[in-house]
Amino acid sequence: MTATEPNAKSFNPEAPRKLIAYRTRLRPEMPIIPAPVARDWMEQTLEQFAYRCLPLLIANQSGWLILNSHRVRIDWDGGEATCSVSLEFAEGGPPFPVSSHFGHGIVTWEIPFLFRTPPGYNLLVRGPANSPKDGVYPLEGIVETDWAVSTFTMNWKLTRPGMTVTFEKEEPVCMIIPQQRGEVESFEPEIRALNEDPELAAKAWAWFESRRRFLQEVPSPFGRVETWQKHYFQGVTPSGEFGQDHQTRLKVRPFAVVAGQL
User: How far apart are CA 34 and CA 39, in angstroms?
Assistant: First the structure.
């Protein structure tokens, strides 16, 4: 197969699986949106160079974001008590979504949804992918949302005592990603010498050599778009073979609102 031929196996997603967010209360309102491709720091890179990294772009979009409902300024004095964290809400009234619940510089968002996934699926609950935030770090959790009858929280750990951290209204504070339970445990990982697979080794060394020549010709990583090596982005190897089911953008469905009462 050459680079000019279509992919022999086009991506064909299975029938959609249900992911249901049961609203447990009307306030505070925390919208859920498909995670977008854009990130502020990527926009600010020279010639938006970061958008040439396809693995970053796919990770950015792989899930849904839960948005903050109130602008809040957070300070931590470095102590372990809950009162060592102070929160100032600049606008809007209670109920507020975030509090100092655990101490140790941890702040907690109460997520106003009870999620349901298909049997055998968990939710990975984490911070927004590829969204660094100075002075605070998102803590990740995995929840068995196919059977649990309790809601979960999203926790962030403050890392710099004496620094004010601000979360804006509608800033993402949580990212949810379905994961099949037990899948990671089903893998049998091995480390082998590359030359055990001669065909793969030949292709890999061809790529290494292609990359070496490219970096010699364009010593700066901020080369023009026309000189950018695009093999992986285009889903093709340097020898012209297409990868299977290659994706350059995700089409994550938005949550549909179904009428009902609390």
Answer: 14
Going by their DSSP bridges, the two strands 106-110 and 98-103 should be labelled as antiparallel
CATH number of the structural domain 20-186: 2.70.40.10
- Which distant-in-sequence residues (6+ apart) come within 8 Å of 209 by Cβ? none
Alpha carbon distance 110, 91 (integer Å)? 18
Give which of 32, 9, 17 is closest to 247, Cα–Cα. 9
- Gyration radius (Cα) of the chain, Å: 23
- The burial of 8, by beta-carbon neighbours within 10 Å (0-12 exposed, 13-18 middle, 19 or more buried), is given as exposed
DSSP string, 120-177: TEEEEEESPTT---TTEEEEPEEE-TTT--S--EEEEEE-STT--EEE-TT-EEEEEE
Whether the Cβ atoms of residue 177 and residue 201 lie closer than 8 Å to each other: no
Predicted structure pTM score? 0.86
Give the whole-angstrom CA distance, residue 74 versus residue 173. Answer: 14
Render pLDDT for 92-127 as a digit per residue (tens, 0 to 9): 899 999 999 999 999 999 999 999 999 999 999 999
- Is 57 in a helix, a strand, or coil? helix
pLDDT tens digits, 164-222: 999 999 999 999 999 999 999 999 999 999 999 999 999 888 878 877 777 777 655 55
Q: Would you say 117 and 125 are in contact if contact means Cβ atoms under 8 Å apart?
A: no
Those residues whose C-beta lies under 8 Å from the C-beta of residue 233, and which sit 6 or more positions away, are 52, 54, 248
Q: What percent of the chain has pLDDT over 70?
A: 87
